[in-house]
Design a protein that fits this description.
By secondary structure, the protein is α+β, with helices and mostly antiparallel strands. It contains 4 helices and 3 strands; from the N terminus they run βαααββα. The protein has one domain. Strands 1-3-2 form a 3-stranded antiparallel sheet.
């Protein structure tokens, strides 16, 4: 059942333009994803990153699918949340904290 799911998150153009002068430590971002116990357990990998844009991918395993054999909605929501957070993290100064305050998956 090897299937690959990918999620791309990009900050709005105005946000990317405003953050264009911020030096984004993308190597640190890649290391943070690799070193995260949660991301490793979940199976998420950083497929691509640039300032304000992140692509995550996940090879679906049995634990990721619902009873219909499709990617569970919670898996998609988790990937989306992680991609959004990482896209912001890629564009702000190191050490700045950020959280998701609202998210809707339909």
């Amino acid at each position: 059942m090897p299937s690959l799911v990918g999620i791309v998150s990009r900050a709005r153009t105005s946000t990317r333009e405003r953050l264009a002068g911020v030096e984004a430590p993308l190597e640190d971002l890649a290391a943070a994803v690799r070193d995260s116990a949660f991301y490793r357990w979940f199976g998420m990998e950083l497929a691509a990153a640039e300032t304000g844009s992140v692509t995550l991918q996940l090879e679906l395993a049995d634990r990721h699918v619902n009873i219909q054999g499709l990617a569970h909605g919670g898996v998609i929501a988790t990937l989306a949340d992680a991609a959004m957070g990482l896209s912001i993290r890629s564009a702000v100064e190191p050490g700045r904290r950020h959280v998701t305050v609202a998210m809707d998956v339909k």
